[in-house]
Each structure stands twice: as structure tokens, then as C-alpha cells.
Amino acid sequence: MSLHLQSTTTLHNGVKMPWFGLGVFQVEDGDEVINSVKWAIEHGYRSIDTAAVYKNEEGVGQAIKESGIPREELFITSKLWNSNQGYEETLQAFETTLSKLDLDYLDLYLIHWPVPKLNKYKETWKALEKLYKDGKIRAIGVSNFKEHHLEDLMTEAEIVPMVNQVEFHPHLQQESLHEFCKKHQIQLEAWSPLKQGKILADPTLTKIAEKHGKSTAQVILRWDLQKEVVTIPKSVKQHRILDNSNIFDFELSEEDMQLIKEMNREERVGPDPDEFDRR
């Protein structure tokens, strides 16, 4: 597929979501996040992904204001934290997020984790459906949901999630989850696409990168796109924000794709969604 930095995928409700964006996990509020977001937008990024638990929504909002780019050209995502799950709690937490970002609406709002022990994601989803119907969010989705969480949610959901953002990288390819999402028109999105830097020295990736005159990070991010997975690498360094997005002038061959496919170990760097219940 011929893509550029502002290319989009169309979610099942017709909303267009950029294939590529900036994540701001573990980016400090204040100058660090403001600079990261402004650099990204200056370089042509249009998608920014934050979350309540990152505690940097205010800085993201300020950077959006200072960027000078019209709000409707940007795609802003945030996520509901575990301690705010439940119907009324979700409605309140959403208003707090919107207020911190100083925005009138969100493009995408996600349930951050399923937290099976809480057993509240169905009522939480009902609140997201209400916010969506009220026009406060253009698309709604989940994060870190496995197939069985999605199946359970969909038994009572009126609206199928538009996005599932999960840990996804060459060591954790989640093929069956990816197929399930495709079948239900749920767009898969990758967090930690570079496995927090732990695979950048991998010899298979290094060899492919040398062949294309690219970095291993660029190879992985290009692989995401060719797998039809939205990706949001984070960086606080201006040159890396630029480098990460420099992936639209080459294409991985079928052989490259196969070599990366063989790297799968179903190995996580983050927590297992069945067990994670931090609040």
C-alpha cells in the first residue's frame, strides 16, 4: 500500500484514523510532553495518543493549542484508567480528561485494561456508548483486550469496539487476536511497537535494515503498517520523532515479512491483561 505520514485507515463507523502517530507513555507533563507533541505535529504527525494514567493530558492539550493546526485535522486519543471503571465513574473521568486536554471532543477513547477481577468493563462500555451517541467521542474502543474479553464484551455491547490497542511487536505478534479483530472490523493498534527498545539489536532485523538502508526501528514500524496495524511509537527526542516517521519511502519484501514472522515468541514486555489489576 502506498502510504504517507497522514494516511488513514477507515474505522467501521467511517471515521478516518491515521496509521501512524505519537505515543506519550512515560513522557513527563510540562515542557517534555509539550515539546514532543509540538515537534511531532510540526513534522506532519496528526495523531497523538495519551491516557489519564500518563498524567500528561494537560501538556498534550497545551501543545495542541500552540501547534496552530486546526483541531479537526488532529486525531486525539485518551484512555480511561482502571480505578475509574463503572458507568457513572466513566462519565466523570471522561469529563476530567476532556477538561485537562481543554478540548470539546475526543477522536478516540479507550478502556485502558479489561481488569477481569473488577468485572466492570461491560458497564464501562455502556458509558462509552453513551458518550459516543452524545457526539463527545468520534470513535470508541478498548486496549489490552484479548479475544475472550472482546467476545464477552460483545455479548451485551450495542456497538462493536472500533479499535483494540495492544502490545504488539515482532516478539508478540498475536496472530489469532489479529484475525479475530479483522473478522469483527476492529482496528488493531500497537503500543510498545519497539518492545521498549529490547529488539533493536536483533540480528534478523539488523540484516533487513542494512538491506534497505534503514534503522531496525524503521523496519519494525514499517512492518506494523504492512501488517495493517496502526502504530504509535513514543519518543521525546526531536530527531527520533522525525526518524520514526521516515518509513514511507521503502517497502519490506515478502521474504522480509516472513523472516520477521518467524521471530514471534508470544513474549510480553508489559503485563498480561488477564492478571493486570493495578488501580
Structural account:
By secondary structure, the protein is α/β, with parallel strands linked by helices. It has one domain: TIM Barrel (Alpha-Beta Barrel). The protein is built from ten helices and ten strands. The strands form two sheets. Strands 3-4-5-6-7-8-9-10 form an eight-stranded parallel β-sheet. A two-stranded antiparallel ribbon has the order 1-2. It is globular and about 55 Å long. The mean pLDDT is 97.
Strand content is 15-25%
SSE class: alpha/beta
Secondary-structure arrangement, i.e. CATH architecture: Alpha-Beta Barrel
Strand order of the largest sheet: 3-4-5-6-7-8-9-10
Family: Belongs to the aldo/keto reductase family.
Protein name: Aldo/keto reductase
Keywords: NADP, Oxidoreductase
Domain NADP-dependent oxidoreductase: 23-264
Name some characteristics of this structure.
279 residues; alpha/beta; two-stranded antiparallel ribbon; 15% strand; globular; oxidoreductase; Aldo/keto reductase; Aldo/ket_reductase_CS
